[in-house]
Each structure stands twice: as C-alpha cells, then as structure tokens.
Amino acid sequence: RRQELRKLKDLPTYAKDGHRVELAANIGSVEDLQKVLDNGAEGIGLFRTEFLYMGRNALPSEEEQFQIYKHVLERMANKPVVIRTLDIGGDKELPYLKLPAESNPFLGLRAVRLCLDRQDLFRTQLRALLRASSYGQLKIMFPMIAVVEELQAAKRLLQEEKAKLVQEGVPVADDTEVGIMIEVPAAALAADSLAQEVDFFSIGTNDLIQYTMAADRMNENVSYLYQPCHPSVLRLIRMVIQAAEKEGKWVGMCGEMAGDPTAIPLLLGLGLHEFSMSASSILPARALIKELSRQEWAGYAEQALAMGSQASIQAFVNHKIKE
Ligand code: PEP
Ligand code: MG
Fold this sequence. Notes:
The protein is of the alpha/beta class. Helices cover 43% and strands 14% of the residues.
C-alpha cells in the first residue's frame, strides 16, 4: 500500500471523472517543509506564522520574517504558498504583548482583530510578506474575518505598505492574491459580499465548527458537539463555495476536516477546489479522490445535506463509498 501511494507522489490530483482538485499542505514552521516535499503536496494551503512570534521575548523583525517567508517560497519552487497573517489570541498567547486578560479569549481580540488594533506589528508582517512576494507564488490570507470592514482595513494597510516599498524601489510582485479564512459563521453567511473583495477563500473548519456549534474545540466535555459533518456546518460550507463560484473565485479548506476521509467525498461533491492538510494525509487523500466521481458526489452531497444529523450523513457516506 505504501508503494502504491508513493506512485502518486508527483502526480496532479484528479477525480475518477477527470475533475481536477489541488492537494496542499499545512505547515507551522520551516522544519515541516521536507515532509511537504516528500509527500507530493501541490502547494502550501496554510502557513501558520504564529511560531515566528511564540517562545521568545520580543516581536520578530521585518528582516527575520522576510528571510523565512522567502526561504519557504524558494523551497516550494513557484508552487502556490498561502501565508496566513498572525493569528494570536484565543488559545495562543504572546506574554510580551501584555494584552489585557479577557474572559472569553476565543471571542475576543484575536487574529486580524488584534492586528488591526496593533497596526505596528501588522504592518511589519505585511512588509515582510510583500518583500518576499517576488520569490515565488505568494498568496496572503487574513484569519478570523467577521465583517467586510476588517477585510477592507487589512487590504488598505497592505496597499499602503506596498506603495511605500515600491517608492523605496523594492521589488514587489504585482499578482499576489489576497484571501481570507472563513472561520466565523457570520462570514460564511455573508460570503456572497465578501467574495467580491477577495481572490480566494480558505475555510477554517477548526474554528468554523467551534463557532457554529458553540462548542470549544479543546473542551472534552462538549466534544460530542464538535461535528464536522453536521448538516449546519456542511450547509455553511456549501454556501461559501457557491458564493465564491458566482464571483469566479477559488475556495480551499485548511481545517482538519480537509484531510478527513469521511468528509472528502462530500467536499469534492460540493466543489471544493483546494484541500490543505497535514503532509502525511496527502497521498491517502489523492488515492481516495482518484476513486471518486465529482459528478456522482455532487448528487450524493445534495442528498446528504438534506439529512438531519451527522450520524445519518456519515452512515450515508460510508454506504456510498462501499458501493
Ligand atoms: C482553522 O480554524 O480551521 C484553522 C485552520 O486555523 P487554526 O487551526 O490555526 O485556528
Ligand atoms: Mg482558525
């Protein structure tokens, strides 16, 4: 089986009926890159940049960040690399920022909310990203967007830093895509208007499930509510994909769900374009998708989404896979 999977390493990902999708990897540090290359990822769908800021006493400099982003882009040799701007807050803290304690950190000053509040650190990261953009196929992604104003503000800061760099004569790519994570139900429900302002969406199901089900993703007492294939979650995902399609934008997924063999057939059927997962899941996912017809699963997905519970949807999917 391992050898069978190895044969798929350098192949693009096609469903049985010739429908093409992209399998990308999630990384959290530069050390993860070798595994990504060894497992035949078609790109990086999520580079979590938090590690750059954690386990130290001060913010990373622009130069330090630039070197790391450039290194990742060069190693990926012009394959797409989605780098997410800082997603701190929630469960991840930076003691040296001395942020006020919050009673509900997951509903507090997190990710892009913090970055828009602390523009100094956000601008530094944006400059580092823009400087790295001429070394590969960079795509910039903002996490935890809830309302269009946050996206507009983030894009404005990006534009301002780009203009400054150009003024300084620094080479900056002209075709860098800008997208957002869909992790907040409000963003999923308003995906039609958000789609007009981005180049792509990436659905962050780890958070989207937690916020949709009102169940802390790390609290074992309510883990029964953490249901990736709950019809409410799947309907939000369908809504996001349809909204993006209408605007001609692509949609990826970078939460754990993207590598889940029970979810993959449904996501393929719903028309997800890019699946980003841990490197070790890529070859199994490629082998699975090869056996599935997009056309057929489009119909099954519609049937599944009309069902009332995750249990019935999972039973239906398992039944159809065996057929
Ligand atoms: C997600 O929420 O699905 C996601 C990929 O982001 P993180 O797990 O880093 O919150
Ligand atoms: Mg998240």
